[in-house]
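Record type: ASSEMBLY
Status: queued
Input:
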Amino acid sequence: MNQHFDKRRERLNLFQALFTKPKTIKITEKELDFVVCPKCNKAIESSEIKKHISVCPQCDYHFPLTAFQRIDSIFDNGSFYEVYAKATSTGLNNFPDYLNKLTRYQKETSLNEAVVVGTARLNDIKVAVAIMDSRFMMGSMGQIVGEKITRIIELAHRRKYPLIIFTASGGARMQEGIMSLMQMAKTSAALERFNQAGGFYLTVLTHPTTGGVSASFAMLGDIIIAEPQALIGFAGRRVIEKTVKEQLPDNFQTSEFLYEKGFIDQIVHRKDLRNKLYQCLLFHKESK
Amino acid sequence: MNQISAWERVTIARNPNRPKSLDIIPLLFDHFFECAGDRHYGDDKALIGGIAFFEGTPVTVLAQSKGRTLDENMKCNFGMLHPEGYRKALRLAQQAEKFKRPIITIVDTAGAYPGQMAEERGQAEAIAKNLQFFSQIKTPVITIVLSEGGSGGALALSVADRIYMFENAVYSILSPEGFASILWKDDSRVKEAAELLECTSYDLQNKGIVDWIVPESNKGFENDISYSISLIKDQIRNDLVKLNKLKLNQLLDLRYEKFRKIGSKL
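Status: finished
Output:
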């Protein structure tokens, strides 16, 4: 019974961690920063977290990474060259309060949109990459996100680069309505052309990857890798619980669940990710 | 025509008396031969697939199927597909490609089914694969949005060379109820939500997504089905002639461009 409660608490903590930013406790005298792990509740020195690429050294909880933290953790130092950095959704739409919201997220994240795209090198292999950032409006995909991703697919196609996309998204962006939905078709079409040309496409599913993003480019990789314990699925848990009116399994819609059901090739711990990606790139060095 | 509000169109689209896929298939096509099953898991009755003649030409028909009565709806899961429905559509589309049969899809769904089993069997993957495959399938595809087009579940059958939409059909990223409840935590503000969603046939035509609006009789679609049906037949006939004239790479380039240009400014 106790075990049951522990499990539930753990899940609740994980869920809450989605909506709360990690607490930083400042101890002024020593100038030491601590972060409380939302899973195991232990306080960990910030420098320690940093050393472990934002993974809790106690319980392996993977903290969300910002797009640029991700880039630093994977690609050769200084090799990332960003394209379309300035693209923003300004003026696309007259949805109430949408522009204000965008501006607020832009200030908070220092990003212009929920995805960062460009080229980079991994152990000197050139790749085209897109990295989503869940801090920006839950990483939702509107027209700009869809267009940036489509353009980086097309760039990979033209230059015959392998393509790596790190997903982190709640799905299509509601505020842009049907135009967001259509981005699913647009990105998938671009991927199909890349696919037919023999391009190699790898996706890394990170927390969370749901809705319209999971139902388009996230699930179309030649190789699909997921980070441990990421939330991955199509419909929201609450929506499903409302429909089926029963309790869902604890690990429902986690990486581990999808792996078990056969939708993911490997679950890879963040400390091993760079090497695994390199290995996959080596296998496909000859593909166009 | 335009004085009908978005919400009124939503209610018209959802009217149980409005003709369903199973009503219009025999009116549009002859000798419909149903093909069941996805060859992996099972048969999803929310997606009716098969082969038929359109004015003498063999075509593959893929239709999302809603029922009228509770009994009918239980059978077809209220028109909400499981992954096997999307995989059945994909299987039959690949077969159509092999025999160079044009594909006619009929969209009528509130969305893909949000259930535990659907997730376990890969709802997201099934939809994604359809989007990818239909985008470059080597045969003409025409989509008819009959009544309700909801989110990715509808989009998975809407990647086509031509998209027709019934005048009073609606097509949106999610239902007005869902939209209102997420945005304002108040699902009674559905009328406002419907307007904001820009979900009517005219909205979608303005955005360049819908190519042709299927006119509905002033007496109501259900009271004069043949009025709309004969117009659709004319349109399909003309479009198939045009699409069949294209070289394969032109057909595929034009379809790519149709979706590529949606929101392509940076």
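Annotation: Strands of chain B lie at 30-34, 47-54, 57-64, 103-109, 141-150, 162-166, 170-172, 212-214.
Annotation: Chain B touches chain A through 51 residues (CB under 8 Å).
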